[in-house]
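hey m, so remember when u said the tokens were messed up on ur end? i reran from scratch. heres the input so u can diff it against urs
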Amino acid sequence: MRLILAPMEGLADVYLRRLITAQGGFDWAVTEFIRVIDQPLPDRVFWLRCPELLTSSQTESGTPVRIQLLGNHQSAMAENAAKAIELGSYGIDLNFGCPSKTVNRSKGGAILLKEPESLYRIVTSVRQALPLGTTLSAKMRLGYEDATLMLENALALQDGGADEITVHARTKVQGYTPPAHWHCLEDIRQALNIAVIANGEIWSPADYERCREVSGCEDAMLGRGAIRFPDLAQRIRSQAAQPMPWSTLAGLVEAFWKDITEQMPQRYCAGRLKQWLHHLRQAYPEAEQLWQCVRTETDPKRLTMLLNRGS
């Protein structure tokens, strides 16, 4: 079993990666995507997205971090992948699953699942640019409108040189609407010679077990489930049914707030806190109460007072 923290744009940034991986259970984490257009990116772009590059590409708790790239320009993707490895990234991940309309309009992310040949060319180009032994992974969905090209896309990634793929078990059109179609992952797994990592609708250890049984995939990537339950990976490993109590999680919320207010521009801090609380309120009544208290507040000092009172 390998458990990976998913690359969630605008959510699983360095601050939450640091906090969630500190709870244990993750084999590695993947960064939010770095958008590649048609030219090499300066080093500062990689450091901004992945500050862990400055600490041997690991979080403070020692979890390796892999940079994810998104784009369709073959040579630029290859060149930037090589740069990321040069800077120390724990392998390279390629994003062919992002459902964002803005990204898809620019022919990035899930839109490329309409063109298996493009996937093959991009992955091949990146593979050829990487040093021998570098891990190259890719993330895809079952398809764009439907899963018609599911196996062709997965084979294109494999044949292009990916060492493993993560499959979000929904199409782009399905977005994040339940259910995740784990049974499709079994078909992909049977067709490939490389590892297939399951992703989608894993909120608990019981969900992981059901996904494993249906898909045959031992490995799983945890996304929103890990945001809602920061100890999810550790609970899956220990088969613990109950998540951490609110008294413990409240301390993590306070630590997160302290972290972002010390390092992020002040104008972004309130929104970043509320974003995480919005996810936590789906699982914890206490988080709902706290969210209701802070949702209209923007002043950092007032928010600190409210957090102290709410915890």
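this time it looks ok to me. Residues 246-263 form the longest helix (18 residues). if urs says something different then somethings off w ur setup not the seq
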